[in-house]
């Protein structure tokens, strides 16, 4: 009996130690010590990649539909934005994975500090970006298309769609006209289970990442005030032109 208890105690200590090491390593990736030089290459180092894989697996992000590529690109962008002082809150990140159809829950809000998925829900894309899947993107006025890339969340306001959240596009020529185009996060009645059941896909916006009216308030309250929002697609033009994903060493 004593031997069994000793064995269980050893396993418990091993698990706690592993979790602590993972926590320390991952926090170091996102929050390096003052004066510590950050990696600036467009490719994750082997150490960072290993930590990213561990967290990606522990949060079961693959089973919830988020591609590892989207997650890795998100962390690359956060590294760069943090180095540039663009983020007020670099612990909360929102990912819209537009490689997936609107009928699937493709919006993820992740607490990187505490390793929790806070939201995994539906999000609409622009009406001219495609029907079920967003395939075309634009930074132009009146295009009614979604814009890819990294955004910083701003302040809230009450507009025609109720409570809304301003988004500051951080990639020149890709999404930097977001404010001018009134691209914001807002609620919409066409993002709902009933709309999906009736149509087979979610409704589309004028380019905004719209969420359900039921969830818009808690989502906005979670991400407002300077966190990162990343709208991702495996679009060749974006991936080859994003300065945040292709930085000089």
Question: Could you give the topology of this structure?
Answer:
Layout: H1 2-30, H2 46-58, H3 68-83, E1 92-97, E2 107-111, E3 116-121, E4 149-159, E5 162-169, E6 184-188, H4 193-199, E7 210-212, H5 216-223, E8 228-232, H6 236-241
Helix pairs in contact: 1-2, 2-3
What would you note in describing this structure?
- It is a single chain.
- With 249 residues, the protein is α+β, with helices and mostly antiparallel strands.
- It has one domain: L,D-transpeptidase catalytic domain-like (Beta Barrel).
- It is built from six helices and eight strands, in the order H-H-H-E-E-E-E-E-E-H-E-H-E-H.
- The chain has an eight-stranded mixed β-sheet with strand order 3-2-1-8-4-5-6-7.
- Strand 6, helix 4 and strand 7 form a beta-alpha-beta unit.
- The longest helix has 29 residues.
Poorly predicted runs: 2-26, 33-48
Distance between the termini: 57 Å
Give the mean pLDDT: 85
**What's the CATH architecture name?**
Beta Barrel
Features:
249 residues, eight-stranded mixed β-sheet, alpha+beta, single chain, disordered N terminus, L,D-transpeptidase catalytic domain-like, globular
Short description:
The protein contains 6 helices and 8 strands; from the N terminus they run H-H-H-E-E-E-E-E-E-H-E-H-E-H.
């Amino acid at each position: 009996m004593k031997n069994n208890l000793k064995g269980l105690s050893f396993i418990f200590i091993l698990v706690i130690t592993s979790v602590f090491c993972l926590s320390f390593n991952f926090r170091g990736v996102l929050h390096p010590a003052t004066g510590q030089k950050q990696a600036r290459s467009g490719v994750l180092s082997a150490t960072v990649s290993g930590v990213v894989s561990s967290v990606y697996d522990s949060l079961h992000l693959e089973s919830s539909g988020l591609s590892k590529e989207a997650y890795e690109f998100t962390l690359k962008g956060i590294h760069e934005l943090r180095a540039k002082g663009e983020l007020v809150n670099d612990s909360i990140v929102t990912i819209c994975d537009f490689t997936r159809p609107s009928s699937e829950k493709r919006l993820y809000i992740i607490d990187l500090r505490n390793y929790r998925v806070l939201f995994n829900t539906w999000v609409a894309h622009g009406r001219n970006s495609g029907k079920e899947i967003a395939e075309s993107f634009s930074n132009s006025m009146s295009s009614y298309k979604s814009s890819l890339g990294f955004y910083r969340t701003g302040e809230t306001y009450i507009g025609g769609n109720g409570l809304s959240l301003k988004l500051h596009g951080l990639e020149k020529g890709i999404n930097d006209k977001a404010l001018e185009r009134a691209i914001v996060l807002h609620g919409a009645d066409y993002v709902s289970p009933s709309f999906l059941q009736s149509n087979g896909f979610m409704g589309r916006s004028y380019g905004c990442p719209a969420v359900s009216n039921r969830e818009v308030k808690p989502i906005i309250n979670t991400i407002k005030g300077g966190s990162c929002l990343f709208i991702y697609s495996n679009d060749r033009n974006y991936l080859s032109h994003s300065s945040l994903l292709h930085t000089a060493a």
